[in-house]
Amino acid sequence: MELRYPDDFRRVRPWGNYGDRKNDGYLQSKRMMFQVYAPNELAERDTLQKIDDDYVGAVPYWEQYFDTWVFVHNSRDGLSPNVNQKLLDLDVQGPFRVKQWGFAKLHDEVFKLDPTSLQRLFRPPPAIADLHSITYENLVNVLQYVAKKPLEESGEKKEEVPLRKLDANGFSDESKELIKLGNRKSRYVGEFFDSWNDLTYGDEVSNSFNQEYQQLRNDNVPADEILSRLLDFAGFRKVSDARDIMAVYAVVAYYFESCDIFESPLE
User: Fold for domain 9-110?
Assistant: First the structure.
């Protein structure tokens, strides 16, 4: 929000023994106050209590400054009927407008940022020149990280990936482009395994990727988020150099192509 509204949004941090006084941020020009709630699991009872506590708690301190109270949450699938009803009741019955911002609204705000701000938020993308700088050393570092994960027996290896697989898994255009980018150098991953002195190494890494993917799929995680988590699994957050980042993309693209991760389209 600071990048989106640099001269307008005011960040509020907890201070001393009085905290943030139920204010997680304030957009002055629109007189909007934000309260963020993003637990790993959005339990209905806890969410209703959180809304009550923060809405009522903000009034004594900030009443003269805001007209709209915004409940920001991290539920990609939406809020329960009771939580929605609570927010609607506050909006209709209370003195302030009440809104909720979820994934779609936050996505919309983020991608209104200019390219420079997006780079500050997500880090600069690797340049095309970096595609030609992937070395076996880059890949070894990434693959060793993945291979240390616990392993279980994997299922049968799937058939070769058809080109329609990108569409079949319901990726966003951005995720498709990341996989295509990694595809540009993914063949070096296979060459690395062919030349490595431990012939079981490639199978071990393949099993760990497949196991991680199956767990995410069983948890009904959306395809874009699965891709993001698999990139992290391959070491994305452990590296900063553009060539290392490109190596991570190449590893994930390699297993995407080989059908170890994600679903093949129906014939």
Answer: Trna Endonuclease; Chain: A, domain 1 (3.40.1350)
